[in-house]
Write a structure and sequence with these properties.
This protein has 126 residues and is mainly α. It contains four helices and no strands. It is elongated. The chain starts with a helix and ends in a 19-residue tail after the last helix.
Length: 126
């Protein structure tokens, strides 16, 4: 995977989490502070969408979506746990861990079979 694609995926994950954190802050406030958090969340979400689009142009969409959306979800759960003290049950932690394991598994390529070589009879000596 190219460096550009990796940076776009990482950028998407960071901006996706930032977007959701800003929208969470907006939901906890009223008036102008809520508006500014809401606006910031939308700007970050727009940037995340652009980064995801650029990553999708560079690599197979199934892999990009798995890495970007799965990575964003896992990081968002960790961020919500540490920043907002949102409790997660053992089953939910298991789900986050399974998603993280799935992200790792998606990155592995299937082994390519060795090329077949047609058997050539030995040259006849006369």
């Amino acid at each position: 995977m190219k460096l550009f694609t990796i940076l776009m995926i990482l950028g998407f994950v960071v901006f996706y989490v930032g977007d959701n954190v800003c929208l969470r802050y907006a939901s906890q406030r009223a008036g102008w502070p809520a508006f500014w958090w809401f606006a910031a969340g939308n700007v970050l979400g727009f940037i995340a969408t652009i980064m995801l689009t650029l990553a999708l142009k560079a690599q197979h969409p199934n892999i990009i979506f798995a890495l970007a959306q799965g990575g964003g979800f896992c990081l968002l759960q960790l961020t919500a746990f540490y920043l907002f003290h949102d409790p997660l049950s053992r089953v939910q932690w298991t789900g986050v861990a399974l998603i993280a394991i799935g992200i790792i598994c998606v990155q592995f390529k299937a082994p390519t079979p060795a090329p077949t070589v047609a058997a050539v009879p030995p040259a006849q000596m006369h």
